[in-house]
Amino acid sequence: MPRKTNKSTSSKSTVRQPIADKIIKKMRRQIGAKVVDLSAVIEGKKNAEALQETVASREELVDLDPTHALYVYAQNQTSVMVEQLTMLPEMNRLARLIGMAEEQYMPGGPPMSPLTTSFFTSWAFFDAGVGLARETPGTTTIAIGKTFGMHKELLHVISTMQDSRMGVYAHEGFSNGAIVLRELITDRTYRVTCPSGYDGRQGELWYVRILPSLFAGEAEHIVLTTPYVLIEPAEHEWQAYFDRTLPQETPEKRIAAYEHHMKWGPSHDYWNEFVFEAYANHRHEAIFLRGLPDRPESRPHS
After folding, report:
1. How far apart are CA 138 and CA 159, in angstroms?
2. Residue from 194, 229, 230, 186 nearest 211 by CA
3. Are strands 221-223 and 189-193 parallel, antiparallel or unpaired?
4. Angle at 262 (CA atoms; ends 75, 198), nearest 5 degrees
5. Cα separation of 288 and 87, whole Å?
6. Residue among 108, 121, 225 nearest 166 (CA)
7. What's the pTM?
8. How far apart are CA 289 and CA 251, in angstroms?
9. Mean pLDDT: which of 15-24, 72-81, 225-234 is highest?
10. Where would I find the beta strands (DSSP E) of the chain?
């Protein structure tokens, strides 16, 4: 599989990760131990095999866009790893954080909850960070995978997902069959495909997670999450929100602050809470939100 380089991932490799370091140290001790608990090994193998059955099959993936299929497969494999890792005491803090959010927001998509599986899983694996290093299940999976020989291409895809974030984009119309989205603060423009089947229309605002193509020479990005269409307020009011929220700095520092805000929020549940309270309506391919994150009175369910 041809792949693009990811500079931001390699630059983070020197950051100390206390949770991952403890787990890796424990795993190395277990591997080096002379006495092995065979019952634990057998039980672990059974659990791993049962979890692997939840991974999308080749038949299920073949009808997807190739890049989307790779991301789905990588997210499934991350889920298998996370299911096993969260049983370790070293992961208690992360497990509690994600468990409390699951209990509060009951993700799965409307009508039960506006938090779709694609949105919540991406947050739980890649944006639910703890500690000074902002360790996530994703960073822990990557660290363990690097140490114990996970395939480099799978590591690359998971790393790309870990480096991703949600963003607010203006729909700029269409180009050669692709949707054109412009990010409000960075002003970057992307040609994207939307696997949910929602094409939208020019002038809409979308709150989505965009991921790059994994194939060299392919320009179109993938909208990983079901689109959240921001039906109210208009773009200038979202720009005013970011003016209130972000520091008035140089363009570079302002963009860095925006990316941090969209990835981590001021609190763990900031963006989950926004989606939950801003829900206005839905259809199979998209969910419609109304309001602003810092104006409770603007959200229907605040």
Report:
1. 8
2. 194
3. parallel
4. 60
5. 36
6. 225
7. 0.87
8. 28
9. 225-234
10. 166-175, 178-183, 189-193, 205-211, 221-223, 228-232, 279-283, 286-290
Contacts of 231 (CB under 8 A, 6+ apart): 280, 288, 289, 290
Are 208 and 179 within 8 A, CB to CB? Answer: no
Burial class (CB in 10 A: 0-12, 13-18, 19+), 95: middle
Other C-beta atoms closer than 10 Å to the C-beta of 248 total: 7
pLDDT at position 9, please? 40
Residues 153, 216: contact at Cβ < 8 Å? no
CB-based contact 150:94 (threshold 8 Å): no
- Name the 3-class secondary structure at 26: helix
**Rg of the chain (C-alpha set):** 20
Q: Measured between alpha carbons, how far is 122 from 172 in angstroms, rounded to an integer? A: 25
Q: How far apart are CA 71 and CA 51, in angstroms?
A: 18
Structure tokens, 176: 């050669």
Residues 6 or more apart whose Cβ sits within 8 Å of residue 116: 107, 108, 109, 225, 226, 287
Give the model confidence (pLDDT) of 236-268 as tens digits: 999 999 999 999 999 999 999 999 999 999 999
| 115 touches 276 (CB < 8 A) | yes
Would you kindly state where each structural domain of the chain is located, as residue ranges?
7-162, 166-298
Mapped onto helix, strand or coil, the DSSP state of residue 93 is helix
Reference 204, options 167, 230, 228; nearest CA is: 230
